[in-house]
Amino acid sequence: MPLFDLLLIACGCLGHVAIWSALTNRMHGFVVARKRIWMGRLAICTLNTGIPVLWAASYIRHPQLISDPGSSWPATVSFVYWAACAFFAVRTVAAWWVQQRPGRATTSPRIESNHTEVIDLQHDLDRPLARSTKAKLLARVPRNEIFDLATNVKTIRLRRLPSALDGLTITHLSDLHISKHMEPAFYELIVERANQFGSDLVLITGDLIDGAQQIDLTVRVLGQLQANLGVYYIFGNHEIRLATADIATLDRKLEHAGLIHLVGSWCQIDVCDEPVILAGNSLPWYGLAPDMDGCSAEDPPGGPLRILLSHSPDQINWARTHQFDLMLAGHTHGGQVRFPLVGPILCPSRYGGKYAAGVFDLPPTLLHVVRGVSGVTPLRFHCRPELTQLVLRM
Q: In the chain, count of helices (H) and strands (E)?
């Protein structure tokens, strides 16, 4: 095989996978029915594997597909497609190299410190935390990290933090996906660890529940969360799978348990005599964006501190436009499967893996994306479930 053909095929295969992975990621950034999501995944998986197989069979029979692309229209189409894939592969590798190049900061300069402790939730328990057959089978996969909870204490500096709020603590919890896959003890352990932070606020950024059958369990588990200034939550893309009546029941019961609903709304709380704005944005799946026109723009300079709960990091531009100081998001699960150096391949966001997890300084907003604690597929590699306390500093 000529060297040019070999290089084009190698780059083309890499670009082919990158293109269809990018389409998969971005598909999850829009409101798509669950059935269509699965149909889309199946179609993309079929094309991702089928196109190279069909092309390889054609190349074996007709090597001129590359060496003589003008010999026929199939050869021309094939050459153009693989050339485009090769270009996309070079672009992808170049972007990766820029991110990984020596001397580039791997963490946001706004992170003052980050203390992480990994806890084996299954350790010392006399019964497995996996409940469903699917979860039990996947829990046996070597190096699966679904029960290795990373508890982080991150000290972050905000540009605009009143001195009275210096040291304010927030527990960021997301993507519990309370379902039949795990025993109730799994979620209870998560809440127990969250309470051990002793934070001033607990903010939950969506995907609380995966089915109406778990409403009572969800309320019982989340009702145990404790915070001096309250526990606030929004919904994510998985809550839209519940019937309207079930959502209303869940909301009512959570409110009775002491949690505060923020989907498409905002409220002002007073912390040490300083106003703080908390808002919730579950777009594009649930509700509307909160109307921020009524927020004060007076003292302190720029108005009160603004904190946004957003299910997806895709709402970062909305947060920046509305002058939020801190935005908390989940949804991506960090990709769940991360490869050394490369990072996540599949990450449900319009930005792909750009904001998969971590702290991102996007003035005037500091974005924190947490990896979440569970998911519909109990499988994680190099991407532990995560529970985080944020300590705000000036």
A: 9, 15
Count of domains observed in the chain: 2
Per-residue pLDDT tens over the stretch 138-186: 999 999 999 999 999 999 999 999 999 999 999 999 999 999 999 999 9
Note whether residue 105 is domain-resident.
Answer: no
Strand pairing report for 169-173 and 386-393: antiparallel
> Are residues 368 and 308 part of one domain?
yes
Closest CA to 66 of 126, 112, 148, 10: 10
| Phi, psi dihedral angles at 350 (to 5 degrees) | -65, -20
Domain boundary among 39, 66, 100: 100
Measured over the CA atoms of residue 76, residue 81, residue 86 and residue 90, the dihedral's sign is positive
- Among 70, 100, 130, give the residue marking a domain's end: 100
pLDDT of 267 higher than 80: yes
Q: What is the pLDDT of residues 309-361, one digit of tens each?
A: 999 999 999 999 999 999 999 999 999 999 887 788 888 898 888 899 999 99
Q: Say yes or no: 153 and 272 in one domain.
A: yes
End-to-end CA distance of the chain: 62
What is the DSSP code string of 312-371? SGGGHHHHHHTT-SEEEE-SSGGGSBEETTTEES---STTTTTTSSEEEEETTEEEEE--
Q: Which domain holds residue 46?
A: 3-100
Spatial distance between the Cα atoms of 167 and 155, rounded to a whole number of angstroms: 9
